[in-house]
Amino acid sequence: MRAVIATDLSDAMDTAIESRVCLECLARYGIDAIDLITVTSPNVTTGMPGSDVGSRTKRALERQERTLEAEGFDVDVHVVRGTPHRRINGLAERVHADLVIAGSRGQSPLQERFIGGTARDLVRTTVRPLLLERIRRETPEEHHDGTRDPGADDVEYEVAHEHLFRRVLYATDFSENAERAFEQFRNLKHATQEATLLHVTPPDRRADADAIADAEARLEALADELREKGIDEVTTMVRSGETTAEILAAEQEVKPTTVLLGSRGRSRIRRLLVGSTTEAIARRSNCNVLIVPPSGTR
């Protein structure tokens, strides 16, 4: 299986790519080949006298390539110009990628997460399953007198959940898109130890005992499928309320490493119609988010 990893060659992406645990999780997912892509601005000129942009990019990519190859992956490197999400999606389609991976940096553990322009655009337009890998930005702690330890960097990064798929929270509305997302467990079964299956009923159906019983039965049927795949620790959960809020509340309760959900959309204007829930979870979740687009997305 093949993954496309989008890198901006930053320290944050170095942190993700250098995490052996993360790479082992990708291998258990089934990834054995990686296309490493960085997209430069069309306005950046390389090769001009006095410019070392090209050489710096090459050195950084070679470092990341060596790291991935050392963990046993076959690696192809791509340096392209253009609009990042379009070039990333284009490569993913061309190589028939099974997974696209993009880093997502939050501003603060106490603030709503802002996933950045490229990650946001990928959420809206991805044509392949997209993993937003949460990377935390950490500022070294100051002492009471306002000083920091000598040699401490101003900014450090860490992967929020190195065991990418160990605990998965799967949110479903039982739609075709959600069913397509559930199919990801065929790849996740060797990497996932615990799974929570969640359905959120609308607030106006809180008192509908039949609807809740039906949802519980359907979730239990899905849970049985996962147990047959070898994922023994599977729990189900039905909550009532506003969908985004309830998914985020469930996340706080079960502490997953990744939230799995399908996205909605239609044809060429999908970016305008992507489900607000999907984008909100991608923006506000504390953990990794695995988004599966509709079949035939363009």
Automatic annotation (TrEMBL):
Residues 2-131, 165-293 form the UspA domain. It comes from the Archaea. The keyword Coiled coil applies. Residues 205-232 form a coiled coil. Keywords: Coiled coil. Pfam families: Usp. SUPFAM superfamilies: Adenine nucleotide alpha hydrolases-like. The keyword Coiled coil applies. Belongs to the universal stress protein A family. This is Universal stress protein. It comes from Halorubellus litoreus.
